[in-house]
Amino acid sequence: MKTSSPFVDLDGNAIPNNQVLGYGRSGLVVFRDGMAVKMPLRYMSTTDDDVNINIEVIQREQDVYRRLRYCDGVVPCISTSKATLQLEFMKNGDLRTYLARNRPLSPFNFCDIASRNFLLASDLSIYLCDFTESSILPLGTDMETVDDNGYSVQTDIGLLGAVIYEIVTGERCQFDLFKDLPLEACRATWPQRTSLPSTQNIWLGAIIEKCWTKGAFQNANRLSEALDSINLNDQSTSGNERYDCCEPGKKISSQYIFKLAVAFGAITIIAIWVWRWSSVIWSSS
């Protein structure tokens, strides 16, 4: 017996729970005909005005896909309709769920990844998805100096630092660009350092700290270079001068290294994507 989810499609038909792959503030992703279909989020109680707003968000995401075209590392968009995106289905789901399901041994706990927007294909290659919170800037924009209501390459790097922190420690971290601001505030501000956790004695701590220091990385390319300098097989390599990420003498299993490599690969790929596409799209989340 199929159990209905709380969601309905644009025609008001109930969506079976076993078809739901995920949902966010404005979109719902369901499995249909071997594809991941993204549609506007709608409940039975959702007003027509809210549905129309969600449709506009989907259409903006379609524009982002048109700008990106067929980029390596982006979930392929197979087709579109007025209010949906038909995307290639990623068999292994999102990175957060995968690492939680395949949790490695202490001292790393990969259960709380900051973003669910990284999907794993059947061969565990990593793809980026979800551009609903992105805006499109004119081609030729100087991304190192542009400021869009407080959003900049620097805020993207700061947010990425929070993603790295969560992957490494398993602890939630929020790089809140609107902390302590009034609800009506529309301009993002750089958070106080005291609102962020310590990076002492954690793997990649020095790199995370630089992400949270405005201007320490000129752009995402510099961050990518810093990540490239990390040797995954060297247990003393931390980005913090020296820090043994494992207990002295503790044997590391190949399975552990594999899981760590998946997480580390995601970190590196995120940085490369930000650098590669910083001239074509802007992420405000």
Write up what this structure looks like.
With 285 residues, the chain is an alpha+beta fold. The chain folds into 2 domains: 1-89, Phosphorylase Kinase, domain 1; 90-285, no CATH class. The chain has 6 helices and 11 strands. It has helices at residues 48-68, 95-101, 153-169, 205-211, 220-228, 254-277; strands spanning 4-8, 14-16, 20-23, 27-32, 35-40, 77-80, 85-88, 118-120, 126-128, 134-135, 282-283. A 5-stranded antiparallel sheet has the order 3-4-5-7-6. α3 packs antiparallel against α4 and α3 packs antiparallel against α6 (254-277). The longest helix is centred in the last third of the chain and has 24 residues, at 254-277. It is globular and about 50 Å long. The relative contact order is 0.12.
Question: What's the topology here?
Answer:
Elements (H helix, E strand, L loop, with lengths): L3 E5 L5 E3 L3 E4 L3 E6 L2 E6 L7 H21 L8 E4 L4 E4 L6 H7 L16 E3 L5 E3 L5 E2 L17 H17 L35 H7 L8 H9 L25 H24 L4 E2 L2
